[in-house]
Design goal:
By secondary structure, the protein is α+β, with helices and mostly antiparallel strands. The protein has one domain: Threonyl-tRNA Synthetase, Chain A, domain 2. It is 46% helix and 25% strand. It has helices at residues 7-26, 52-57, 61-90, and strands at 32-38, 41-47, 94-102, 107-114. A four-stranded antiparallel β-sheet has the order 1-2-4-3, with helices on one face. A hairpin with a 2-residue loop joins strand 1 (32-38) and strand 2 (41-47). The chain is elongated and about 45 Å long.
């Protein structure tokens, strides 16, 4: 346990942090967010992330590329803040952040890599 918190509590805090980030940076929150701690990785799955305008754009190949580019740019601008929040919540340093979005199903995955195994603290 990290700071006396359970794995579920930390995953919940990460979930809330991601929702807040999405609302501030993207203008709206996703329909559903789940966070999973797996060893030294935090996997975040966001459902229903596309805005109505993005859904419209995603109907063409060029539009899909545009949506992905805009999302990548926004996450790049918020990367430092996101990694700091993850570090604050977990007590470990977030060393990397990877993300991708599937415009067909409107889901996004965010993966944080930590500098050590967080999951082992809960066993």
């Amino acid at each position: 346990m990290k700071n006396g918190r359970t794995k579920g509590e930390i995953e919940g805090a990460i979930r809330n942090s991601i929702i807040k980030f999405e609302q501030e940076f993207m203008g709206r929150g996703p329909e559903d967010v789940r966070a999973f701690i797996v060893r030294d990785i935090i996997l975040v799955r966001l459902k229903g992330v596309l805005t109505p305008a993005e859904r419209q754009l995603a109907k063409s190949e060029d539009g899909i590329e545009m949506v992905k580019r805009v999302r990548q740019t926004l996450i790049a601008q918020g990367r430092k803040k996101l990694c700091e929040e993850i570090s604050e919540i977990t007590g470990l340093k977030a060393t990397a952040l990877f993300t991708d979005i599937d415009t067909n199903i409107g889901e996004r995955i965010i993966v944080f890599v930590l500098d050590q195994d967080l999951e082992s603290n809960f066993q």
